[in-house]
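Design review, sub-item: ligand-bound model
Attendees: FS, YL, KQ
YL presented the inputs for the zinc ion complex:
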Amino acid sequence: MPQHPTDPACIFCKIVAGTIPCLKVIEDDRLLAFLDIGPLSCGHTLIVPKGHYATLDQMPDDLAGACAAAAPRLSRAIKAATGASAWNLLQNNGRLSGQAVDHVHFHIIPRREADGLGYRWNPTKLDAEEGRTLLAAIQKAL
Ligand code: AMP
Ligand code: ZN
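KQ shared the predicted structure:
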């Protein structure tokens, strides 16, 4: 069993440890998935790594990969069980993004016709010169 960092004050660490209950969908040595207690839609499920990492950018690649790898199977089961025809994978990092629980989690949010869910998506236009400068800065930081 791999050792994972934990934070005793963290609600998701408490769920991982079993000291707070959850409706668990799957579990293995690296992650668990459980029903969100405040679902945005029927079937809203969270994939949570067993290690305590506040945001995805702080997380080991292989653990993040294990969480992402659980999404296809889980989403197929959630679609089959709920009849949802579509779904969003949402992963918030930091308060400004809407993150409330500082332990990485991936939301699987089933979508249905006229479900009232949505978000602002106001595209701008990428300036070619700015794009090249940005690209160079990102690649330098990799
Ligand atoms: P986020 O805003 O991305 O941090 O999302 C946190 C999510 O965790 C919300 O959708 C909450 O409803 C959910 N949540 C918080 N506490 C619990 C809990 N004890 N069991 C299940 N889901 C929870
Ligand atoms: Zn935690």
